[in-house]
Structure formats: structure tokens, C-alpha cells
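Our consortium's second objective concerns turning raw sequence data into structural hypotheses that experimental partners can test. To show how far this objective has progressed, the report includes one record in full. It was chosen at random from the queue rather than selected for favorable results. The single chain below, 321 residues long, was entered without modification.
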Amino acid sequence: MQRILLGRILLAAALAFALAVHAQDFPTKPIRVIVPYPPGGGVDFMARIVGEKLREKWGQPAIVENRVGGGGNIGTEYVAKASPDGHTLLFVAPGPMVINKSLYGKLPFDPDTMVPVSVVATVTNVLAVNPKLAADSVKQLIAFAKANPGRLNYATQAIGSVAHLTGELLQSMAGVKMVHVPYKGAAPAIADLLGGQVDMAFLELSVVLPHVRAGKLRALAVGDEKRHPSLPDIPAMTEVVPGLVFVTWYGFVAPPETPSAIAHKLSAAIVEAVKRPEVAQQIRDRNAEVAGSTPEEMALLMKGERERYGKVIRATGMTAQ
């Protein structure tokens, strides 16, 4: 029995040593960064600027590929089935990692088994209304909604999006009833918000800000826990509805069973990249905030959001269409 135990200990030690040596050699070939969204957007942009810094650091190309479709599921499935050697990564927003497992009846991968690497940036969302709406604050909006159940509607980019779940959370926490109007993307949603066909929307700051500054939309709250420097006079939603935070994050994850040593080596390089002044400024120019997290910090974030959004999806019976 002692020989068996000793053998297992020696085997575990040998394996740990081999993984450590492998991590020291990493990367040994080009790194492929899969973005499950169309090229040209904020997610794609951030993946490319971080990928370029990884190339500079390690001398290996970081090739960004866009594999679009299925609410991010197609690209995520591809990475989930890739070799767990750190050379194929996913750069992703919350949907595939913390929402889709509850939203879709069945997925060809388990997002819970993906290995967190690092959160690169966070983007606050804004509750914006058409100026014709008789509400200059969240308190007035809630009061109007309570007095007129089902009269207000809100636009979102898609069923099951962060914006949709935020709308459901607001209704639950404030005790109001509103009508959800889903669109296929942010562009048609904001077009109808500007035109007055819908009353309000939860949209990323970068999309809303130009219209707010032009007086075409009215911002009532930002989704971070504190006020945003781009809209210093607009309250954080938590000032009115404590606990209601609606922030989008972007980050890297690796295939299941990727060794911890490799995940940490990747994380350290990514944090180093996003903290560089020129990269940080490019991220801020997109109205995003630099994050840069450890794998453990990212895992904790995803766990909390998975539980929070899953609860909303189950309570409403929401499903992807």
C-alpha cells in the first residue's frame, strides 16, 4: 500500500514538473485567438491590440479569427474542442460563458469547463431614454412604470443579452412591468430608440454617448457601481436601485484542461499588455475601462454572473429563439 501511495506521489510530482517545464517553453507556435463575433467591433478590436502585444513579447504570431454565429456559441465550441495547450484562445463577452448555458436547451460544449485566463476590459452600460419620455430620472421612470403597468417598453440587441437580463432584473427589483422589444443587434435598437418607436434601452456607453451629448437621447443611469467620468452628472444605477449593476466585460478563456501554469503565464502577459500606456489609452478611447485580472479573479466574476443571470432566466422561463 505504501509503495502504491509513494508511486502516486512520484507520478503527480513528475506530472507537475513536466507541466511547469511545458509552461516555461510556451508558446512554441502561433497563438490563435478566436473571436465569436463579427470583425470591426469593440470585441474584435481589443482582441487584436492585445494579440499584437503578445506577438511582440514572444515572437510568435497571434492570429485573430472571427467565427460568428449562434450567439457566440459557434466560436466557443471551436475553442472548447481545441487542444488544451494554450495555443488556441477565445476572446469573449459574457454571453457564451455565463448566460447561454441557462438560455439554450442544449449546448455542444460546457462553458463551465473552460479555463479562465484574464478579463481585459469592462464596459459600462447606460439606461437611455427617448427625450420625449416624461422621465428625467430613474425614480421618475419607476414611478411612471408603476402607475402605468406594461405601458413602457425597452429595446435590446437580442433575447438573452445582458441588456435583456438587466431589464428583467430592473422589473423584478423595482416591482414594475415593462414590455421587452428584442432586435437583431444594437444598430436597429438604437435607431428605433432615436426615432421614438421604443421608450428606453440598455446600451453600451460607446454607442449611447454621442447621442446623449447631441441631445438626441437622455441618459438616466450608468450600470457601473460608480459614476462614469464621461457622464459625471449621471448617477450610477446602484444609487437608485441598490445591487443592480449592468456591466459588460471582455476577456480570454482557454480550452478545458488547459494547465494552470499556462493559463497563469498567459494571464501575466495579457495584464502586462493592457497596462501599457498606449494600449490602455486605446481601450479608454473605446469608452472601456482597463481590467487585467488573474485566472482566479476571472473565475470568481464568471461564477457570480452565472448564478445571477441563471436565476433571472429560470424565473422568467426565458429561452433562446
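The partners drew two points from this record. Confidence is low (pLDDT under 50) at residues 12-21. The chain has eleven helices and ten strands. Both points have been shared with the crystallography group to help prioritize constructs.
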